[in-house]
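Page 42, continued from yesterday. The earlier attempt failed because a stray header line got pasted into the input along with the sequence. Redoing it now with the clean sequence only.
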Amino acid sequence: MSNPATLQVSFEKGMRREVSRHMLPKDAAWDLRDVVLGGAGLQERGGWTHASPDLSTIKATASYVVSGLVAPFSAGDQNLCVDEDGELYKITSSTVASDLGALGFAARGGRFYRECVIFTDYWGNNYPKKYNGATISALAGSPPLAKFSSVFNDWFVLGGTTALPNRVYFSAAGDPESWDTSAAWIDADHKIKGLVTVNRAILIFTDHGIERLRGSIAPPESDITHDTLAVSQAPYITSIVQSGGYVIWANRDGVFMTDGASISDLTLDCGLKRYWQTIATAGEESSYAGILGDRYYVITMADSAYVIDLPLRRAWRWSNIPARNFWSSGPYLYFGRSDAPYVGELSSTFEKTAAVKNDANGTPVASLIETLYYEGPTGLKTWRAVYPSYYLADAASDNPTFQLSYILSPESTSYTNVGSAQAETTEKTRSRVEVNKKSSGIALRLTRSNAAADFRFYGMDADVFGMERSRTS
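This time it went through. Structure tokens are written below.
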């Protein structure tokens, strides 16, 4: 009678690529796609949903959504988005939206300040506009033709004009429509790529790193100090996100987080530093980020979205997230679809049910898991069978399955299928899959197919036997 050895029951360290596959920690995986990590093994993610109707039914020229924000007006929150032509919409529900009028430019986002949203033109061709909850108008007071904005103490801050790309301007206290552009400003050392206020400091993201402004009196009679927080690669502008007392951003070197005083390298902590540098070649044009559930940093890069669990420093990836900019409100993370005039929403990804077996664009959610290289004691072994433990529920008559395949060398990338596709179940199941291969170790891939109401993977056992020295040649 066999006595299967346990290969892995926990994946709590997430997807890791910082070391070779045979050197991964025991609770890690080589690749995790379209899953979420929880207390009971791996669970397949739920599909994302639509938070808006098709905006082309509201405005016929709408093709895609470029940005948005949830504005906390005293009369009630408004979920706003901007399309590629600079049209502003209010999203009431997945079936109701209204056209608020033209901003005149495709704003990459807006800042809420004193009962209005102020939009700037990233390309520097249009003066800021404001939306007061009902109407759109030009921001009065002769503001600078700036690309970036923030709120610091009780000043509205604008920065980075085409003519003066390193200048930061301050409004009058409490009045975003009163500007002294001849005196109320401070120059950064380098070209501005973003402005964020955190813990009573303005962080100025530049093409050479991060500079910092701190103080309590705005210029011209200012006590504001200016120093350098970090010298680094330029940030991907649409990756800069604020979460509580932290700011998170990405560049080609990694993903980082700061409280305004010190900086953490999240990609290094998650074991993905080298991997990130290989996929970040697409750069800023494919990088958009947001915060999901006040805990997860979600960033698109190359052909995937990467999810970083901030408290636990672990990560995995999701496919089929066609996002062009994200914006958050409490547990919800919205995104503008880059391929259609809809606003998507991601909170349902953590609640796998039959209702969200597919993403809102109709694509079935089907996960992929690539394990570490299981080796154990040195020497040649016979891998007779493996025993996946799982639960795979059908939502209707989709007939979900998963296929196991293997590699025998940690450097190999060409998998061989083993056994038949595993079928749906009505309860937790442990199946036997014959392998019958001789090798010092093995790594496995699990590939899901067809939509499922639920899929959970609890771990893997194996019948494995060391070979006598005289029989290993």
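Notes: The first strand starts at residue 5 and ends at 8.
Reminder to self: strip header lines before submitting.
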